[in-house]
Amino acid sequence: MSGGEARDAKKLVRSPSGLRMVPEHRAARSPFGLDEPPWVPDKECPRCMQCDTKFDFITRKHHCRRCGKCFCDKCCSKKVPLPRMCFVDPVRQCAECALISQKETEFYDKQLKVLMNGATFFVTLGTSDKSELMVCRLSNNQRYLVLDGDSHYEIEIIQISTVQILTEGFTPGG
């Protein structure tokens, strides 16, 4: 096994939330990964944190795998893939987290592929009012957003606080 293969090795881990396929080395983790949240302790949630239904022998308590909060089955019944936490199978999530996970999956399946190849955008940095036409792409290790235009920037993904899509289907200069 070469050094690169050893660094990229993964192991199957059983967590309270389900089976996960995680990188053996922390350095191989994606910057888009999420850590499993701590679960709200059972004794701290006698009622559903969404609909306020009291938990009892019939109404069981479930934890959302994404946020860790306690919900009844009605409020936490969706099983949705959660690749950002390396889960092998879809996992139980509350409605709010399931929607976020579904949108993230769409982003990874569609927009991320565009960003790996590069795409042209109008970019406004910081509090500036001026937009610049730039080719944006992710670095090969997905740790940096590379912006090339009149200026050149390499921005570490974890430093980006917000991204706003103003208009879909807009062609620059069109």
UniProtKB/TrEMBL annotation:
A GO MF term: zinc ion binding
Keywords from the named record: Metal-binding, Zinc, Zinc-finger
Domain FYVE-type: 42-97
Domain of life: Eukaryota
InterPro entries linked to this entry: FYVE-type_Zinc_Finger, ZFYVE21_C, ZFYVE21_C_sf, Znf_FYVE, Znf_FYVE-rel, Znf_FYVE_PHD, Znf_RING/FYVE/PHD
Pfam families: FYVE (PF01363), ZFYVE21_C (PF16696)
Identification of the protein by name: ZFY21 protein
